[in-house]
């Protein structure tokens, strides 16, 4: 009995890895049927492997197409994957210039499984920076970097997102679906989001969406820092510079 259980476990590990290996730069997204056919596995077991991978963040579902792609947890396995990533190559010099000009830490974030994930970061000299390690996830509703991506997702995605119960991290956190929806509509109009003390007291975050060549918002560019210091720098100027840099990255990704 014991022996066969081990064999079964081993074959499911092997098959799970086979699922991951199907993805490449040439085929970054695959449908359920494509995965099933390429592996020649039964429907039920294909479903089981995919579900396990999605639950662990190794695969993610594209809400627009319902196809699967590699998840961001893969990136945190070695950090090597994203170095070849187009976004990384295009964004880095722009992030570095922005960080230097504003003397603030600049982040690029993604949305994944209802969380915002910090993918790249360029550090400033400010010693009081907030800890946002690469690969860390934060809640979407209390971060400008999350909301500025969420605002441009498909209607049905936003609708289902708003069905959850939202945690208050400070007295300024938006916790009602109505308030969050209002904020999203505001972001759609102005193309940026500014939240103050919504996640950490006395910390402000300003973020703008990054679009790719398909016009989808794929990420956000954000500056997070002490409210008092950012206020001294004139938030209108910060907003303008962050929006310009996000636009610049988008153009490098082929968005016009």
Low-confidence stretches: 78-84
Report the portion of residues in β strands. 15-25%
Shape: globular
CATH architecture of the largest domain: 2-Layer Sandwich
Average residue-wise pLDDT? 86
CATH topology of the largest domain: Beta-Lactamase
Q: Mind telling me the C-alpha Rg?
A: 20 Å
Descriptive report:
The protein has 256 residues and is of the alpha+beta class. The protein has helices spanning 2-21, 32-39, 43-55, 73-78, 86-102, 144-150, 155-161, 177-190, 227-232, 235-252; strands spanning 59-61, 68-70, 106-112, 115-122, 137-139, 193-196, 203-211, 217-226. It folds into 2 domains: 2-71, Arc Repressor Mutant, subunit A, CATH 1.10.10.10; 79-252, Beta-Lactamase, CATH 3.30.450. 45% of the residues lie in helices and 18% in strands. The chain has a 6-stranded antiparallel sheet, with helices on both faces. Helix 1 crosses helix 3.
Sequence-ordered SSE layout with sheet pairings:
Blueprint: H1 2-21, H2 32-39, H3 43-55, E1 59-61, E2 68-70, H4 73-78, H5 86-102, E3 106-112, E4 115-122, E5 137-139, H6 144-150, H7 155-161, H8 177-190, E6 193-196, E7 203-211, E8 217-226, H9 227-232, H10 235-252
Helix pairs in contact: 1-3, 2-3, 5-10
Give a quick precis of the structure:
The chain has 256 residues and is α+β, with helices and mostly antiparallel strands.
What key phrases describe this protein's structure?
10 helices, alpha+beta, two-stranded antiparallel ribbon, 256 residues, Beta-Lactamase, 2 domains
């Amino acid at each position: 009995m014991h022996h066969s259980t081990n064999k079964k476990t081993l074959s499911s590990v092997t098959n799970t890895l086979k699922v991951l290996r199907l993805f490449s730069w040439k085929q970054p997204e695959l449908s359920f049927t494509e995965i099933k056919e390429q592996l020649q596995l039964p429907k039920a077991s294909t479903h089981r492997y995919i579900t396990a991978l999605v639950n662990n963040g190794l695969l993610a579902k594209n809400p627009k197409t319902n196809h699967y792609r590699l998840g961001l947890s893969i990136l945190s396995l070695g950090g090597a994957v994203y170095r070849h990533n187009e976004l990384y190559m295009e964004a880095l010099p722009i992030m570095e210039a922005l960080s230097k000009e504003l003397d603030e830490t600049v982040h690029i974030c993604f949305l994944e499984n209802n969380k915002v994930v910090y993918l790249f970061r360029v550090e400033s000299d400010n010693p009081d920076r907030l800890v946002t390690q690469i690969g860390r996830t934060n809640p979407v509703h209390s971060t400008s970097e999350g909301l500025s991506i969420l605002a441009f997702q498909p209607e049905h995605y936003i609708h289902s997102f708003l069905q959850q119960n939202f945690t208050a991290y400070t007295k300024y956190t938006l916790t009602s679906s109505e308030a969050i929806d209002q904020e999203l509509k505001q972001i759609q109009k102005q193309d940026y989001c500014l939240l103050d003390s919504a996640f950490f007291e006395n910390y402000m975050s300003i973020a703008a969406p990054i679009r790719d060549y398909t016009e989808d918002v794929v990420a956000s560019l954000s500056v997070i820092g002490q409210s008092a210091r950012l206020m001294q720098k004139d938030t209108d100027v910060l907003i303008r510079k962050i929006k310009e840099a996000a636009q610049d990255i988008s153009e490098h990704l082929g968005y016009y």
